[in-house]
Design brief:
By secondary structure, the protein is of the alpha/beta class. The strands form nine sheets. Strands 12, 13, 14, 15, 16, 17 and 29 form a seven-stranded mixed beta sheet that branches. The chain starts with 11 loop residues before the first strand and ends with a helix.
Length: 601
């Protein structure tokens, strides 16, 4: 762009969006499709599916009156590697200058709406400051997770030389939507919905299962896909369950039911697989229904551990696995006494959420501080203090020895320390085990803890059988291919995508840097890397004020980072690790983080 003009005249950059027919954000999906979703209530009822519904499509090429154009800045306002949010009247766009070229994209992360201008620009992509999703600045495409949708990219059409202004032209619809669903194939299999065989069967409809199905369609796969789930709901945003317990199932849905119909992704709800026969490539469901497959993805997730103490059968003791569990806990906790067992992410999020609603909230934990193994002693203590300031009482270095009921309902929790705590509701968050019992006789390899080992391509020991999500162990590329289990939402997305690409023989490998977050009392903690086995924690900032960054090191190397009120440091570290560069302990010990916090690559 730079050297092609003979006269040193000012530059005007015109950027326009064109929406191909299928590239529409999910808010545009018509909700008026008739007929039931592709689902059966796994109880042997007739399985009839409607294949004729289609989504209404807006016209692919916006007319001039549907577009808006404005001068957004002076051509010298942005340096290379800089980003700016600019206003077009109908909405904002993110203007990026990279290698002398301007790019204009949607300005909000489609996952939870984070302002991308506060993120990290590096290696031709912008990384969200909140949860680490990455978008290609040349295409707007989602390149790393979480989330499902991409950004609109307002394509440069021409460069006119006029008054040194940068102009952006965009469709009003794209500006208002702020998200773009990638073009997807539709299912053209004549047997879809009727026959007892499918090309792809996906067991488990969490992030891994859904992203696998969507990736297959994005890559042009038009054969039959069946997604089955134990849940009664279409795929939903499970991390929200423990952060916002009274959210209704329909508010949690990742895609509306019309989406599954339009792209021919059949969802079988309340469908439990009881056996898998890899020799005949058949699965059997609990109600006797049999389904043949040619490619299989196992993404069954995990099952929460329960208490095994005396009185475990009393009422009002919950694990949180479904929206119904979460909603019931909130309903019963209002104005009552709540005991949360386990001070990990789930337990602490639930405790934080219930403080406003319950009469009292107590947390019981074996370790001496919350999150100790994950975040270390000092960060754990600082977070514990925040909870205590919000009236949460802790019983540490002890466990539950008995649940006492009155007329069958919980009344007291007795601790090993012999302390008795009043409790009307008990929430158990003591970890989970892989939900792989149904695979024991299948010939698909499981390790001693029940996890499914896979290679970098998410393949199991059986050809054509892939696995992803919370139930797998896989080689973590940037930690010397150490076999790890990382039960994070973002990792499940990435693994589902890699599995789909390899079902299509694309030879993709897992390379994402783990990224997770938690939210308590309106404050977010972000974390990137894999800190298992850290031997030191270097903290910059102020722990007491909860404005800090903590670097987790092993030997001479930084292996993970956590922060609160310090954006976009975690996304920046994730970007450095993703680029393949090691971060040395001495670099973070000095307190001079200019090498890290400078925007740009």
């Amino acid at each position: 762009m730079g050297g092609c003009f003979s006269k040193p005249k000012p530059v005007e950059l015109k950027i326009e969006v064109v929406l191909p027919e299928k590239e529409r954000g999910k808010e545009e999906l018509s909700a008026s499709g008739k007929g039931s979703p592709r689902a059966y209530q796994g109880n042997g009822t007739a399985r009839h599916f409607h294949t004729e519904e289609r989504l209404s499509t807006p016209h692919p090429y916006p007319s001039p009156q549907d577009c808006v154009e404005a001068a957004v800045c002076h051509v010298k306002d942005l340096e290379n590697g800089q980003m700016r949010e600019v206003e077009l009247g109908w909405g904002k766009v993110l203007l990026v200058k990279d290698n002398g070229e301007f790019h204009a994209l949607g300005h909000k992360c489609p996952h939870y709406g984070a302002p991308l201008v506060k993120g990290v620009l590096s290696r031709g992509r912008v990384r969200c400051p909140w949860h680490g999703a990455c978008f290609n600045i040349s295409t707007g495409d989602l390149e790393d997770f979480p989330g499902l949708d991409s950004l609109h990219k307002f394509q440069p059409l021409q460069v006119k030389i006029e008054k040194e202004k940068v102009y952006v032209r965009a469709s009003k619809q794209a500006l208002q939507l702020q998200r773009r669903t990638k073009v997807m194939a539709k299912c053209i299999s004549p047997s879809a919905g009727y026959s007892s065989s499918t090309n792809v069967l996906i067991v488990g409809a969490g992030a891994a299962g859904l992203v696998c199905a969507e990736t297959l369609r994005q890559e042009g796969f038009s054969d039959r896909i069946v997604l089955c789930t134990l849940d009664r709901h279409l795929p939903y945003d499970r991390p929200k369950l423990s952060k916002s317990l009274d959210t209704q199932p329909e508010q949690l849905a990742l895609r509306p039911k019309e989406f599954f119909r339009a792209y021919g992704i059949e969802v079988l709800t309340e469908a439990q697989v009881v056996t898998v026969d890899v020799r005949t490539k058949k699965v059997v469901f609990k109600d006797g229904f049999k389904l043949e497959y040619s490619k299989l993805l196992l993404a069954p997730g995990s099952s929460p551990k329960t208490l095994s103490c005396k009185g475990k059968e009393v009422e009002n003791v919950f694990t949180i696995r479904t929206p119904e569990d979460a909603n019931r806990v909130v309903r019963l906790a209002r104005g009552r006494n709540v005991v949360v067992v386990g001070a990990g992410f789930l337990g602490m999020e639930v405790a934080a959420y219930l403080t406003e609603k319950a009469h009292s909230v107590s947390v019981v934990e074996l370790e001496e501080t919350p999150f100790r193994r994950f975040l270390g002693e000092r960060v754990g203590r600082a977070l514990m203090k925040m909870f205590e300031n919000n009236r949460v009482k802790f019983y540490m270095q002890t466990e539950v020895s008995e649940l006492r009921g009155q007329e069958g309902k919980l009344k007291e929790v007795v601790l090993k320390s012999s302390k008795v705590v009043r409790a009307d509701v008990c929430v158990v968050g003591i970890g989970a085990v892989p939900a792989t019992g149904f695979l024991r006789q299948s010939g698909i390899g499981l390790d001693s803890r029940g996890f499914i080992p896979v290679n970098k391509m998410m393949q199991t020991n059986v050809p054509g059988v892939f696995a992803a999500g919370d139930a797998v162990t896989f080689p973590l590329a940037w930690r010397n291919n150490r076999k790890v289990n990382i039960p994070h939402w973002q990792m499940a997305h990435a693994q589902g995508r890699v599995a789909a690409q390899n079902m299509l023989a694309q030879e993709a490998e897992m390379s994402t840097v783990p990224y997770l977050w938690t939210a308590m009392f309106g404050k977010s903690l972000r974390y990137a890397g894999y800190g298992e086995g850290f031997d030191d924690v270097i903290i910059q900032g102020d722990l007491e004020e909860l404005k800090f960054v903590a670097f987790y090191t092993k030997g001479d190397e930084v292996i993970a980072v956590a922060s609160m009120n310090y954006d976009p440091i975690v996304s920046k570290v994730a970007e450095v690790l993703a680029s393949g560069r090691a971060i040395r302990k001495r670099e973070v010990e000095t307190g001079d983080m200019s090498w890290l916090t400078g925007k740009g690559s």
